[in-house]
Design goal:
The chain is an alpha+beta fold. 49% of the residues lie in helices and 9% in strands. Strand 3 and strand 4 form a beta hairpin. Helix 1 packs antiparallel against helix 2. It is rod-shaped. It starts with 10 loop residues before the first helix and ends in an 11-residue tail after the last strand. Residues 1-6 have low confidence and may be disordered.
C-alpha cells in the first residue's frame, strides 16, 4: 500500500526553471547585441543590461533547483520515517527493547542435505523445499550441523 506522495511538481522547481529560462534568454539577447556592435564602448550596455543579469539569473535558478530537489527529498525522508515509526513493537521487555515473536514455532526439525544448519519445519528457509529431510540426531550431536539463526530451533532433538 502506497501512501499519498507529493505528486505535483514543487513550486520552487517551477520558479527555478522559469528563472533559468529567463537568464538564458537574457544571455542570448546580450550576446546578440554585443555581436552586432563593432566598438567596445557600444557593447558595454548589452553586457551590463543583459549578459550579467542573465548569468546571475542562471546561478539563482540553479540554486533554486537544488533547493527544490532537496526539499522534495526531505519530504520523502519524513514520509518514510513516519512509516517506520508507525509500526508499533509487539511487546517491550524490562530492558526497554521490543520483544520479538519467534519466526518459527514448529517442533519438527528439518535439514537440507549438504547444508550446515538445522531448522524448524516452518522456518522460511526450508518451507516448501521438497529436499528437506528430518534431522539426524547424530549429525547434531557431532556438531556438523548448527542451529538456524532465523528460526532458532531447540538444541535437543527427538
Amino acid at each position: 500500500m502506497r501512501t499519498s506522495r507529493l505528486r505535483t511538481v514543487h513550486p520552487v522547481l517551477w520558479a527555478a526553471w522559469v528563472v533559468l529560462a529567463a537568464g538564458a534568454v537574457l544571455c542570448v539577447v546580450g550576446w546578440y547585441g554585443v555581436s552586432g556592435e563593432r566598438f567596445a564602448e557600444r557593447q558595454l550596455p548589452y553586457l551590463a543590461s543583459c549578459t550579467v543579469p542573465g548569468a546571475a539569473l542562471i546561478v539563482s535558478g540553479a540554486v533554486l533547483l537544488a533547493h527544490g530537489r532537496g526539499s522534495i527529498a526531505a519530504a520523502r525522508v519524513e514520509e518514510l520515517y513516519g512509516l517506520l515509526v508507525a509500526a508499533e513493537p509487539a511487546e517491550v521487555d524490562e530492558t526497554g527493547q521490543a520483544a520479538l515473536a519467534p519466526l518459527a514455532v514448529s517442533g519438527e526439525l528439518l535439514m537440507v542435505p549438504g547444508g550446515t544448519l538445522w531448522h524448524r519445519a516452518d522456518c522460511p528457509l526450508v518451507t516448501g523445499k521438497a529436499e528437506a529431510v528430518p534431522v539426524d540426531s547424530k549429525l547434531v550431536a557431532s556438531g556438523e550441523l548448527g542451529p538456524c539463526p532465523i528460526c532458532e530451533p531447540a538444541e535437543e532433538t527427538d
